[in-house]
Design brief:
Number of domains: 3
Number of strands: 8
Number of helices: 13
Helix content: 40-55%
Shape: elongated
Structural class: alpha+beta
Mean pLDDT: 87
Strand order of the largest sheet: 4-3-7-8
Largest sheet: 4 strands, antiparallel
Order of helices and strands: HHHHHHHHEEEEEHHHEEHEH
């Protein structure tokens, strides 16, 4: 669905943005306007997250957001989930009957201890720990992903503090050619579980499972390989046909064959094809344009010093070469 939503008319995207601000900034305050409005808030939040799940957005994060929304519904609203003779439903009805009849036991001193602890903790966070966070939030030089406390109790989360308008991807390619500069060298591509690669592959539904390596590759594309050295570590593992790393990929072009002699990283700019266009008619979900080399061709011997300087175990080829 993300393919079609992305290519929707401009007015639909304006509606999306306004709806997002309404649901996230205004609707949560319905929680304090009585039981019915609290349930309205819960229903809207769940519906909103379902829309995000269908559009393939934030994997398990959407499901985690649904969980606290369930607290907006009272027992009567959720009663249909339990059978009439179920123990849980019977126990809840008995507790409610005791409460209505005024036979609820008086709270003991021990029962008040957690309440005092919670109140003290809230005062600590609101009056002392949150001051630098709010100050940073209102600053024109706001810092993202920063902890303001040695215990990391209060911090700012800003993975999406800014969103790029272009999608760039790092594509791993390998070849059996002894000379990577040979114009006749055949470079074959590795495919990840979900991130864009093969332009003919339909975008997958990223929910609720989270393909963390795919996620990290997206961030690596924002940077250089010097800033994301783990990309070179993966290249070394691919050169040795390492089964652990290959288990995280969807397609290994050298499955059942010799290990590649060289692996390189290519940098591409991706965008969705236009529905109804000639590219879409050919089965292309994506269009891509090469930006340049992300990292140059590397082989096992050439990576030996690189791995040693970082105290990484050097990968060894699992197959003998002729």
């Amino acid at each position: 669905m993300s393919y079609y939503i992305h290519r929707s008319p401009w007015w639909f995207h304006r509606f999306e943005t306004l709806s997002n601000h309404f649901v996230e900034l205004i609707v949560p305050f319905f929680t304090f306007l009585g039981r019915r409005m609290c349930m309205v808030n819960g229903a809207i939040q769940i519906l909103f997250q379902v829309v995000l799940i269908v559009s393939g957005n934030l994997s398990f994060l959407n499901w985690l957001t649904i969980v606290p929304s369930l607290a907006c519904f009272d027992d009567a609203s959720l009663g249909f989930l339990f059978r009439s003779g179920a123990g849980a439903k019977k126990a809840v009805l008995e507790i409610q009957s005791e409460d209505v009849a005024g036979r609820t036991p008086a709270p003991t001193k021990g029962m008040h201890i957690p309440n005092f602890a919670n109140a003290g903790y809230c005062c600590l966070l609101m009056n002392l720990k949150s001051i630098p966070v709010v100050t940073n939030l209102l600053s024109s030089r706001q810092v993202m992903n920063t902890s303001f406390d040695p215990l990391r109790i209060v911090n700012t989360y800003g993975a999406f503090g800014s969103i790029t308008k272009e999608r760039t991807e790092v594509i791993f390619q390998g070849t059996l050619s002894p000379d990577p500069k040979d114009p006749e060298a055949l470079w074959e591509e590795y495919q990840f579980m979900c991130k864009p690669g093969d332009v003919y592959r339909r975008p997958c539904l990223l929910s609720p499972y989270h393909y963390r390596l795919d996620w990290l590759m997206w961030f690596a594309a924002f940077q250089t390989y010097e800033q994301s050295e783990w990309v070179i570590h993966i290249a070394g593992r691919l050169l040795s046909n390492d089964s652990t790393v290959l288990s995280l990929l969807d397609h290994n072009p050298f499955q059942g064959r010799d290990s590649p002699r060289w692996v390189r990283g290519e940098h591409f700019r991706y965008k969705f094809s236009q529905p109804g266009s000639a590219s879409a008619a050919q089965g292309k979900w994506w269009l891509r344009k090469r930006i340049g080399a992300y990292f140059p061709p590397v082989n096992l011997e050439g990576l030996r010093g690189y791995f040693q300087s970082r105290n990484w175990p050097h990968p060894h080829s699992q197959q003998n070469r002729k």
